[in-house]
Amino acid sequence: MSQDGNKFRTATSKRQRKNLKNVRIIFPEQIYRLMTSSFSKSHETNLEGYALAQCGIIAGSGKKNITYLVKKIYIPDNCDLIEHSSISVTPAGEFLGRVLGEAGQSNSSVLEIHTHLDAAKPSFSSIDLENGIENGRFLRTCGIPFGMMVIGDAGMSLLEYEGDSDSLQLPASITAMVMTRQGLEGTLAYPATEETPAMPDTYDRQIRIWGEARQRKIHETTAGIAGLGGTGALVLLMLARIGVKNFILIDPDIVEGSNLNRLPYAFAPDTGKKKVKVAASYLKKVSNDAGIVAIPQPVEQSGDRLKSCDVIFGCVDNDRARLALNELSLRYYIPYIDTGTEIIVKEGCIEDMGGQVRVVVPGVTGCLECGGLIDKEQVAAGLMGAEDREIVKKAGYIRGTNDTPAPAVMTLNTIIASIAVQEFIDMRTGRARPAYNYMIYNAVRQQIERLALDRNSSCSMCADDCSCIGSGDSRRSGRLKTKIMDRDVSHS
Q: At residue 305, does pLDDT exceed 50?
């Protein structure tokens, strides 16, 4: 890291350029509250706020859309600082060594965040710019992307170090968002959002419920749907009708005659066609300007295509796919709404009938692994070879797949799909949501049980120190960045 008498240079040289990137920074609510609380305490004593964030990164198509996923925030104590005033902060070398060492091990980027007191719309100082160039140069040699963010009373700015041009680059737009129980909520944006045209009359009755601004949030959503069978078909139908315009659809199957009792987007002439193609055709009839990506593959092979979504609906019939979607949700900070139904028939009578909806908000609620809601035996069965699979199939251990088609009826699917889509609406419209995020519907007793699926601190998928959560596009195993650990950054 750059040094000046063994000081870490806080914050961006005159080699500053603009680019066409759109940047988002997503903070889990707990991390965001910790950071802003620390900044508030510093401001009370007329001191600049300061933090370092360890982030995963999502690189969009053409790298024009970049998302920083804040995995961990480092707030220095007084003993971690060499200097702290109303205009500058200098962290100690030991503190920096620990932060950068952990970032190197987890293949994360580093985002330096500080505040400017009494600045509504802050910009970087000349000292910030000079130091940012040197910091970026050093971290590039360690393979760690570097960015810096300054926050004011009503605005912010962000610069990213770009090694090829040895410059700090200002994105075209920047949005800071917080992942809450209600989903993603915007906090600050640059530039300020401009006025947009009024919504079509189609959504007038909904606007009367939650207002035009919230209807626009629904309209701008990119929704991923994995599985276009009984429940997924109805989720698709409802999302299209309430105004969602962009979809990523995943399902490897074709429309069969036995599907037509529960697929409202399909008709007899569609038999034999790929479900995703038929569903895409239906969406175009509902809205000819809909944006649709249709992927006729299993979610385990193509799940990463969902990383640009604002929400993912899991409407799959096996826990192998659920496990993949649960991990995808955690890696990319995307709310995941899992659905499932089951009907047990014995000797011609319904013995049990119902379904569930489970909402995973990364970094806020528990995930499916936290609650032990993934059947590892079923996952293992999905990985079996053909011979072993035939044995367990005959033993009756594989249900609800093409091997052993499960009973299904549209009425049950509609109830579960409605609960799932209402959860999405509550998120996008900011409706205060209670603590529960696991709904179990019993169709025999016509009752809904509501449970809270909380985070498990020892969960192998979403614990704070787990390599999965917020990892973004990184797939490399964590390994020590020796350049960081060998460099002397301690204060003498």
A: yes
